[in-house]
Predict the 3D structure of the following.
Amino acid sequence: MGWGGGGWGWRPYVSVAERRRKAAREMEKRRKKGQSVSPVVIEGRAIAKTFWGKAWCENLERYSDYANRLPRGRTYVRNGSVVDLQITPGTIEAHVSGSELYRVKLEIEPVVKAQWKAICRDCAGGIDSLVELLQGKLSKGVMERICRQNVGLFPTPGQIRLSCSCPDWADMCKHVAAVLYGVGARFDHKPELLFLLRGVDAAELIVSAGQATPLKQPAPAAGKRLAGADLGAMFGLDMAQSAEQPAKPKRAKPAQKKAAAKKGKATKAKKPPRASAK
Ligand SMILES: [Zn+2]
């Protein structure tokens, strides 16, 4: 992924279409190598539409350090320039198609333990289930607490380290701004990634509720069970109402099918493991 060629000064004009093709080729190579590629796709005008996505974007926009520099990222993310975005605990890595394909890396500190405990305590009893939490079906009080500036669930600029491989990097380039918005768009579809990113267990918000009302056990028990499971998968299933995948994978060739049937577990193993911590 070199961006040398002619040094730092003059660079030939590259049309958007050509950039797109280059980026698409690069991403295709990665896919073939078995790396997951997850582009940010924005449908319609709004970058984020759900509680979680909007709350992420609004959090960033309220800090004056960011407010002036963020807007240039909007067009970029809308036109599909964020061709890959991955979220793991504490880290966001992305590829953004500009004059070249640039690498963006954002490091975000975990929520301070005492702060997370305070959030859980303040929200105790206010959230009925993990599904409702992830769907953003929350009371005003809970929403306000989660979004509260500096002490809520969203990071402050001081907790975020930004970097980009582009030559005109200065504090925040449009590639980084696009990725910051792209994260909001991603939380629309996978809000559980916010909790992963910030190093906290979403189920603890529900468990706290259980502790507050020990007589009503069913809900917290479910919350505890969910904690160990793949939240994304469960949430995805619930939202899409697409119950179970058919037992045999669609693209399996006959030979693979036989092998899979023999081993039994093999069909399940096709699914890559959940975002791995680094
Ligand atoms: Zn950049």
Remarks:
- DSSP finds 14 helices and four strands in the chain.
- Residues 182 and 242 are 26 Å apart (CA to CA).
- The first helix runs from residue 16 to 32.
